[in-house]
Amino acid sequence: MEKKQISILGSTGSIGTQTLEVAQAHGMGVYALAAHHNIRLLEQQVRQFRPKKVCIYEEGQYAKLQEQLADLPVQVLCGMEGLCEIAGDTHADILVNAVVGMVGLLPTLTAISAGLDIALANKETLVAGGSLVMEQAAKKGVAIYPVDSEHSAIFQCLQGNRREQLHKIILTASGGPFFGRTREELANVTVADALNHPNWSMGNKITIDSATLMNKGLEFIEAKWLFDLTPDQIEIVVHRQSVVHSAVEYQDCSVIAQLGVPDMKIPIQYALLYPERMPCPTKRLSLTDYNTLTFEKPDPETFTCLKTAIAAITAGGTAPCIVNGANEVAVAAFLSGKIGFLDIGALSQRAMESIEKTEITCYEDVIAADTKAREFVRSAISK
Ligand code: NDP
Ligand code: MG
Asked: Which residues pair with 96 in a beta bridge?
């Protein structure tokens, strides 16, 4: 098997660092790396993996990074321009988009127009601009390999079966640290409580999304776009152990699931090596370690983010983009202590209900809706 060259946007994050572990385990080439502001780790990664290009998004750190890397033959870039230069560079065989948030949309679209396949972790890209991304990817014949564990599971359960014989998908959810609590009990939870996820160690933004269950709402929308489903073909089931990563039910009543230990290296590797299944640097699953696997209904009345996200994708157009933009600002405000936990859901819902929704015909429509949502939440918080 020929060794692939990969480029990673968000290489210093939770998905980014695990992607490098997988790449190293398989002797893959690292063509380019990018981060937001962590130049210390980015420099270490450049010294270890010797990419041809590196980008730091924050322009204030650019000169410093250039100076730190002056002894190496690496081109140093910055800002959105730098991210897009990497995203559109077809010297790589695959782009891993592992940045967090809407900022990943333009690089994703750039990779698609260059014809570069994408391993997509950046789910916000599909939530905000799913119709654009999927349409353009189909037009260009670009493959989008899911990195999100649930979507990787579904993708795996679709292999060797007929897509038109799919009945529905079962999207599993860990339920996060607060599943089973009442709204009264959620009112005063702290940032530290919310960051304490029972099964997964992830970046801060997605960990908060997992606690509010917005993550599952975003994943519902992500699944709709990746697998061309209608909302009524997606069932969410709470499965506290995160062993069954999701399942597909076919017309004949057979349900095919994908299982494994909760370790993102498995879905990352499947996206990078598809369709190969090579040894992965993680633990093997031992079902008897678990004794019991549980499955429960979600509680959208308590975890209103779930309800808001599903209402948004059912409404269509820019509604999911508005919910995503509002949620990004609200989560950042919660993390910096400006609002309470339940305000995240309340603000996302109010943004979706208050802001006018339009169809999405181009990138600018997405940006306009995202900007309105962010302004709405910022102004609601400052009142
Ligand atoms: P982290 O916060 O751990 O990492 C985010 C990465 O993106 C960092 O490398 C960060 O750089 C970089 N980044 C952020 N903004 C920019 C920017 N403007 N330009 C360039 N780089 C940027 O997040 P995660 O790895 O947890 O999540 C990444 C994506 O993957 C999210 O969309 C998340 O929803 C999704 N995902 C994550 C999972 C997980 O297990 N972590 C599971 C499934 C999906 P810096 O370090 O400099 O800040
Ligand atoms: Mg997931």
From this structure: 8, 119
In this structure, the residue with its CA closest to atom 23 of ligand 1 is 203
Q: 39-66: per-residue pLDDT in tens? A: 999 999 999 999 999 999 999 999 999 9
CA dist 237 and 296 (Å) reads 6
- Give the model's pLDDT for residue 249: 98
Please name the fold of domain 5-146. Rossmann fold (3.40.50)
Q: What's the 295 CA to ligand 1 centre distance in angstroms?
A: 29
pLDDT band per the 50, 70, 90 thresholds, residue 172: very high
Number of helical H runs and strand E runs in the chain: 16, 11
43 phi, psi to nearest 5 deg: -60, -45
State which of 97, 100, 197, 215 you would mutate to test the pocket of ligand 1, scoring each by most atoms of that ligand within 8 A of its C-beta: 100
Q: Does domain 188-212+301-383 have CATH number 1.10.12.10?
A: no
